[in-house]
Amino acid sequence: MKAKTGTSSSERLKSLAGRPAVSPTVHPDPLLENLLLFARVLRRLGFGVTPDRFALWLSALEHVDLARKSEVRSASRAVWASRHEEVALFDRVFDLFFRGDRPIHQLELGRLLSRRQQVSQKLLGLLPGDPDAVPGAEEGETVIEALRSPSRTEVLRRKDFAALTEEERAAVFALLRREPLPPLVRRSRRFRPGRGGDALDLKRTLRKSLARGGELVELARRRRRRKPRPLVVLCDLSGSMEPYARVLLELLWVLGWGGGRRELFAFGTRLTRLTRALADPDPDRALADAARAVVDFGGGTRIGEALRRFNVDWGRRVLGRGAVVLLVSDGLDRGEPELVERELGHLARSCRRLIWANPLLGVPGYEPLARSMAAALPLVDDFVPIHNLKSVEELAESLERLDRR
Predict the structure, then answer these.
(1) DSSP letters along 185-213, please?
(2) What region, left, alpha or beta, does residue 337 occupy, with left being phi > 0 and alpha being psi -120 to 50 degrees?
(3) Exposure winner among 13, 96, 148, 236, fewest CB in 10 A?
(4) What's the CA angle centered on 180, arms 179 and 181, to 5 degrees?
(5) What span, in angstroms and rounded, lies between the C-alpha atoms of 397 and 240?
(6) pTM, full prediction
(7) Strand positions, DSSP E, 347-393
């Protein structure tokens, strides 16, 4: 099949397959621009977009006619939709993205990014945000500069929480609500029947052999059951954390509604349990109740005393079944570092993994020189930043990989 330019679709894709899948600059070829942009949309929707799969996609498109969208859709679906529940979502995204009347290899980037009111409403209901939308774009207007400049979502992902305006904070909260942290799971000691399991189920194997006269024709397998893993969050809401307090409270509400077993606490000079206050489905009411419950909001910090109260009053209740503890604090403490070291050590021995998230870790040149922070570092399993949306996403990914580790 020859394109209008005189170069076959297969030859163009072969030439594109030899180039890197991700380039720091926008390539002048409209076909590659369109494919890269579509891969970006799939990645935001949770599809597994990697350079290897992108190269496989280009190879698959070599064997179809780019003038027939049905063939392109089938080949693309076979590469990107690896699970049954992803098929319907992929078809919707494909139809909304490549909605022009011309063949895919002839569509221009500007046509793909044009914002018609009807299509914009569909995309807003489908995608996690519409990062490339430009306010004020009318029907039929072509918007090309959206890809040339960083998207609004990408800017928000990297902007420090302390520097957010009220409008930007609301946008960050909306993004957090669209992509909550999924429930953590752990492998149980019990097994269940399952194909492809790593263990032989001897009882089921012998039971099946009875129907065949005792011949071991089929080997039954089993795999470990998976159970929810508790997540316990201890968040510092003292005066030194005030620039991050509002966003952190919103993050706590999102964590509470992410599914699984979640226990949420705040501390300053005392410890306050916020699990019930943040259980309200209405975020405004929940945040207002939480702010009223934290009587020492914006006050001093006594990390050691708060940890001692948690270990005494709540440790045995919430730290069973391989719980993960996330402690969010800048480490600036008025108490004695010896108390922090002793109580944090007890907490570390009681949980599966102890993660200290410090918003100051994202500040260039920061060093954990505060006495309490220096005493705590040898006892924590992970010391990570939590100063912007990107750091929260990286933290969520590390928690999802916990069971695989």
Answers:
(1) EEEEEEEEE-TT-SEE-HHHHHHHHGGGT
(2) alpha
(3) 148
(4) 120
(5) 28
(6) 0.58
(7) 353-358, 382-385
